[in-house]
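Suppose you are handed a protein chain with no further information: no name, no annotation, nothing but its sequence. What can you learn? This example shows the usual starting point.
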Amino acid sequence: MLRNRRYWLSAAAVVLVGSLAFAGAEWAKAPEAVTLPAGTMLTVTLDHEVSSKGNHAGEPFSATVAAPVLYEGKTVIPQGAEVTGRVVAAQPSGRLKDPANIVLTLDEVSVGDRAYDVNTTSIARRGPNHKRNNWTWIGGGAGLGTVLGAIAGGGKGALIGGPAGAAAGVGVATLTGRRDVRFAAESRLTFHLTEPLRVDLKQ
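A reasonable first move is to predict its three-dimensional structure. Written in structure tokens, the prediction is:
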């Protein structure tokens, strides 16, 4: 009886040790997760140019993480991690109105062999409003046309020259009014998380 009891106690101990070892191994394999809070900065470098003229809303763009993202001393997102973003809006410059604008945001960041969806702030760039410049050209053209018309044909020439000069001014404004905006390749842009991001460090 004593021998059997010792046998069963030894067997139970072996099973217990094995179970603890298995649990420890599983725990060691379990990913260590870190949650980056909303507001965390994510600075990236564009892989290629993105512009109001060459891109449209909904188009993706690629970038790489320019500076590692740290949390409590740990590197959560390493420098060089791949990032995918999206053009939220893109409006090419109009001729006589509607300045160009483009808006970018980030959608995904890859850490190790996993890709994580991200929600970030947007970065916008807007072209200058060239309405004042247009009216300067148009007004200047009308004034110059009036002067030239007066020289050429007196009062009647002035009446003809004014509208003709204004038309010429409109033509110049049409040619010079387009001012598209762009983010050049290798531009460094900083976005902020708008929602927490959970990242597994052990992969």
